[in-house]
Amino acid sequence: MLNEKAKNRVLKNIDKPLPEDDKKMFNFPRRFILGAVRLFINIFYPMEFENLDNLPDDGAAIVAGNHGSNLDAPFLMFAINERKRWGYFVAKESLMRYPLLSNILLKFRVIPVNTSEVEAYSVKAIFNVLKQDKVLAIFPQGTRCKTEEKLAKVAPKTGAISFALRTKTPIIPIAIDSEYKLFKKSRIIFGEPYYIQTDKKRLSEAEMMAESIILMEKIFALMGKEYPLADKEKLTDGILSDLN
């Protein structure tokens, strides 16, 4: 949980209106910071974008990627920027504890989320992004998972699925295929948009988890890999195989 001062800082910024045109997000201070970060990444961690056309020029979208490093957020932001769009990122609320970092993230319209109990202001901000036809960027794993051991243990969160269902927004799986090594090229691969297919008004926890696992499987498939999460059937009460 955030202390009162940090929470007030978040509440003061999170309700600010979003610009109708994404171009207005590319003002000088943000462009300067993005330019400096991109110069660093272009030199030390070069990027290659694939299938960018899978992100539409307009309309709401949830872009969901795998998460193995702190580099993933700038990788994904620059990929979205290539389409002249702005990515509104969901990030762990704990990052807002640090005043300088918090102020920068809030200027970039990052939405803090408590992964154990989502606050009402976070839900409102996410709905606001999608209702205004913006791009929401999220890492379903909820934490960095780089090793095979951690990938096998950490089940994805269901937030992306929940918001996609409640707002009827397409999900775009994005694979960040990287070893995160100096001068080694990273591939950011956009998959095809898809909607969660269901006739139900509400899915069970097992069904939500199954859809989250299917999303992660789509992401890993873009890299030609199998999603190595253990106990998939147990986590989904045995319904995953029926949905796949």
TrEMBL record:
Residues 61-179 form the Phospholipid/glycerol acyltransferase domain. Coiled coil: none annotated. InterPro entries: Plipid/glycerol_acylTrfase. GO terms for biological process: phosphatidic acid biosynthetic process. SUPFAM superfamilies: Glycerol-3-phosphate (1)-acyltransferase. Keywords: Acyltransferase, Transferase. CDD domains: LPLAT_AGPAT-like. GO terms for molecular function: 1-acylglycerol-3-phosphate O-acyltransferase activity. This is Phospholipid/glycerol acyltransferase domain-containing protein. It comes from the Bacteria.
